[in-house]
Amino acid sequence: MKSFSTGTALLLAMALIMPVPAGAASTVIITGESPFASCDVSSEIGTNYLDAEVEPWIDVNPANSQKLIAGWQQDRWSNGGSRSLLSSYSTDGGASWTPVVVPGINKCSGGRGEFAYDRSTDPWVATSPDGVAYFMSLSFMNDRPDGGMGANAMLVSRSTDGGASWGNPKVLLRDTDGRAFNDKNAITADPSDSRFVYATWDRLFDTSLPKAAARLRAEGQQLDGLSLARERYRAIVHGDANPRARAAYYTGPTYFVRTRNGGKSWDEARVIHDPGRNAQTIGNQVVVEADGSVLVFFTNIKSTGETSISFVRSNDHGATFASRTEAILTSVTGTGVLTPDTREAVRDGNILFDVAIDRTNGNLYLVWQDARQQGVDKVAFAMSTNGGLSWSKPAFISQTPRQTAKYRNQSFTPSVEVGPNHKLFVTYYDFRNDPVGSAAQELTDYWIISCNPAAADCRSAGGWGDEKRLTPASFNMLWAPNARGYFVGDYQGLVRQGNGVRALFGITVVPGLTDMATTRVK
After folding, report:
1. pLDDT of residue 395
2. In angstroms, rounded to a whole number, what is the distance separating the alpha carbons of residues 319 and 314?
């Protein structure tokens, strides 16, 4: 078990092992002992990593940059989800944090009846201009004995006191069919109008699922939407013979729901883009333009295996949407990131992306992992200055030094944000500080770079620089929870805060234990 002071002490001990480089930012650990340690999970399959926190998101109060809310998975499982999700808030700009259980989203957080879900995942937070905050989550029951997926639901909780407390969750969509799984959700508050908040996700419907029961349970696996998407991609592109990946029939449309009254009620969830048979979307995110237009971005995976980042647009606050617009064709590796020495899988942001908007000039920015340079996953960037009608060519912007060893050139799980005066920031992980041949450790660091559009061309890799290391010491990726790959999160948090940005990201501290670290950069 750990405490907040223990986590900080471990980080300091790590910093003594490896010197802090010039330009490193001041980093604070905000996680501690799990409040869910006494929750009975004895009937579950898989390995639970108690006190392991992964996959963070963070938002700032638009009216007061000293007020922040974060969320993450608490006590990650090896085969999908976590014991529950935890929130934390700060009222002093991120110097100190107070953890808060988001109540009623599953059995470990006090959920009863139809809310007594076994696990939760995919935390996402958003704050409206009036200070009302929203915490979106995916909660689900264990897979059924017949091989179908357990009941699962998209939930949203609301806070009117800056995240100090949360109300009971509301159901945006619940499935009990056994063939449907809702996944990879995001929630966005309209930055100009507190009435409007938008939520989106993908809903997988797979007719073959009940047939996989014996094999899955023998492997100790649960169903996982992102893992399924990756399996299917590999099956199409690389000829994977996995019968589960080669589903007879599945769909994965984008779902969308909105509130028009500040979360008092929500419209009915509906499909706003259907990619067709044996195709799907994943990683849906919403950005809102200055005039209130809503853009929903997603990775579009065609039945042929072709992947792209696409979007649909609404000019009436989400009442109706136009057809899909393709932004960028992406190049996705079949493996995702591999550790440089042992060649073990890292569960990363492969096939996902992040998007940001500069609402003062309308520019749109995308980052993602792409393999068309050096044949390994690296951070790619593209931008649009005309509302998404056209996009710049992908630029590979991470500052990871080019090395002879192929897998030390990887950079992964990027996030992007617009800071003050239009300045752009991008974060990512890499292995540059891992010594060659060190199979017992795969040393990893987290970095931030920036581009000032007033002084440089951000469409070119040469426009990016001012790299800062956010990890005080390199951490061992092999210590991360193994969830079909070493896992600190499919995404990490990055948000504008006053005259800078704040990053929230996962690191390891001892085997099987991860922490949430945060730092602010100008």
Report:
1. 98
2. 7
